[in-house]
Design goal:
CATH topology of the largest domain: Nucleotidyltransferase, domain 5
Number of strands: 5
Oligomer: single chain
CATH architecture of the largest domain: 2-Layer Sandwich
Strand content: 5-15%
Order of helices and strands: HHHHHEEEHEHHEHHHH
Length: 299
């Protein structure tokens, strides 16, 4: 029997968000194009373990070395993670890329880009390698501390524009729609003012259920915020993804508890405005491969 393709972490989290919003398993499955049994399994896992991550499996680890088992002229590498694209996503991405491929650079400079990400304490925030001497495998400098069942995590919300980083907020609880609107209320306009955005600036966020909820849309409408229409499953088109490497810098400082992870705000503030400017200045280069690949991610 062929192995079923694993759902992306973003899709698993959306299932939980929709469940908390009162949707039935059948309705969630239809909306996301996922089998009802799969939706039920993910919800049960979340209720039991408070996570949608894959759990460690039992059994002894494989001892055979992978060296030499791959095709000729290939290297063993960690696979890149990319969103699961369905035909509707591909079409929306292609439509977005074509619609904005000729937009002037000044338009992108007047966009506030935003996103959320999770940073884990003693977690696998990134894949990394170290140079080490023989018999120094367990030296503290050559290891990453871990705990058996994870050490907690916080959610980050951040925004930036071509002029530099905006505010970064650490959320220590699971973010819901009300909390998201509170974050926008307290931080979006102050960020726009600090970044000296021009009149008519545009706000970008993705299609997370918290963002597309009726209450959130109504709040944005009443505040007269212009929102960039965004294609689902398109994190590769959001330049803020390049700024989340701050998780690596936070890990290098070896925080010892969740409170210490607030040093991420310090690391965020250190991001040079020139980096932000470059990401936005080259934005159209992100759209070119989307058009060339007819909406699919770059191979």
């Amino acid at each position: 029997m062929a192995k079923t393709k694993e759902l992306s972490k973003d899709t698993r989290n959306k299932i939980v968000d929709l469940h908390q919003a009162g949707k039935t398993e059948s309705a969630i499955g239809k909306q996301l194009g996922v089998k009802k049994s799969t939706v039920g399994a993910i919800i049960r896992k979340w209720k039991t373990y408070k996570t949608t991550d894959n759990l460690p499996r039992s059994g002894a680890p494989r001892k055979i070395s992978p060296r030499g088992l791959g095709p000729k002229d290939s290297n063993l590498a960690v696979p890149d993670v990319s969103p699961l694209l369905k035909p509707v996503h591909v079409q929306a991405r292609l439509k977005f890329a074509r619609a904005h491929s000729d937009d002037p650079e000044e338009d992108w400079e007047n966009v506030i880009w935003s996103d959320e990400t999770k940073i884990e304490l003693f977690g696998k925030n990134s894949n990394c390698c170290v140079w080490r001497r023989k018999n120094a495998v367990l030296h503290p400098k050559n290891t990453i501390p871990t705990v058996k069942h994870g050490g907690g995590n916080i959610m980050l919300w951040g925004c930036f524009s071509a002029k530099g980083p905006g505010r970064l907020i650490c959320v220590k609880e699971r973010m819901n729609g009300a909390m998201y609107r509170e974050i926008l209320s307290e931080n979006l306009l102050p960020s726009a003012r600090a970044l000296k955005m021009k009149h008519g600036w545009v706000f970008q966020h993705d299609n997370d259920p918290k963002h597309t909820a009726r209450a959130t849309k109504e709040w944005l409408r009443k505040k007269h915020f212009k929102v960039l229409e965004w294609p689902s499953q398109s994190s590769d088109l959001n330049p803020i993804e390049n700024l989340w490497e701050l998780k690596v810098r936070v890990a290098q400082r070896q925080p010892q508890n969740i409170t210490a992870l607030e040093i991420c705000e310090e690391e965020w503030a250190k991001i040079p405005a020139t980096v932000c400017e470059s990401l936005v200045k080259n934005y159209r280069k992100r759209l070119t491969p989307v058009i060339a690949n007819k909406g699919k991610t770059q191979v």
